[in-house]
Amino acid sequence: KAFKLCPWDSLKIVILGPEPFASTMPNGLAFGDKYLAQFYSPITSKIFDCIEREYYPGGFYLDFDFSLEPWAKQGVLLLNRSLTTRVIGEEAHKKPWGKFISAVLNSIVEHKPGTIFILWGKEAQLLAPYVKKNNYILTFDDPKEFVYPAKDWHCPNFKEVDKLLVDLYGETIKW
Hints:
Blueprint lengths: L1 H4 L7 E5 L24 H14 L13 H5 L2 E5 L13 H18 L4 E5 L1 H4 L2 H4 L4 E5 L16 H13 L6
Parallel strand pairs: 1-2, 1-3, 3-4
């Protein structure tokens, strides 16, 4: 689904997530939720809360789509490190998908210079040396780390991406 919604020609940003969360209802996009209500995914709720604080202070952001499909359609590849998972045996599919994800990232690095990579969490940040060449790298803590205990996730990457996109293309993403 990530590749269908974010065609190669429109790719500007890669957000790399862990394997899909078996305890939520994954939809094929990293951090995306099959349902459009924030009550189903505490991790996507952290992302929503951050965007609402950054872009709509004092107001309500009613148009946020918890599936994250609108992001993908704007050129954001929401890619998990594994594209499948098991309820029991967390990270059991990490190794089988490793070569495929590496090939995807290598293709982006080689053929789409200027791509913005957003690496949330220590695991994703381990890939920074491999995507450095001719690209932009933004890092921050994984939103999952802020779910329990309940803490606010104040990720600066959305505003940083907008600044880069304005400089590069004269546009931003409607987060």
